Amino acid sequence: MEFTYYPYNEKNVGKVEKRWGVYKLAGRSKRILFIGRGNIKKHLPKHLPDGPAPAEDVEYFSVEYYDSGEDAAKAWEEAMEEFYDRNGKYPKYNKPMD
């Protein structure tokens, strides 16, 4: 599934729902730099420039919502595996999966 990308700023991040999901952070060329999961309203703002885990070079984000944390975790694993299969490495800001 293709994600729709939005400019990564406080205004747009403030519009996300308080639901489980997978989010992708991307650079200017919309190349994925990080794939995250969890409660979107809680986790997505952490990567803004003034957040506790800022991600440099991020210009865009996308979100896909799920009904449960388990569904989001499964979708995240699939997204990470797909990224690795295509690129031979994980996104810039993701640590390798065990």
Structure description:
The protein has 98 residues and is an alpha+beta fold. The two termini are 25 Å apart. It has a four-stranded antiparallel sheet with strand order 1-4-2-3. The chain has helices at 10-13, 40-43, 69-87; strands at 6-7, 20-26, 32-39, 60-66. It is built from three helices and four strands; from the N terminus they run βαββαβα. Helices cover 28% and strands 24% of the residues. The radius of gyration is 12 Å and the shape is globular.
Detail the topology: elements first, then pairings.
Layout: E1 6-7, H1 10-13, E2 20-26, E3 32-39, H2 40-43, E4 60-66, H3 69-87
Antiparallel strand pairs: 1-4, 2-3, 2-4
What is the gist of this entry?
The chain is of the alpha+beta class. The protein has three helices and four strands, in the order E-H-E-E-H-E-H. A hairpin with a 5-residue loop joins strand 2 (20-26) and strand 3 (32-39).
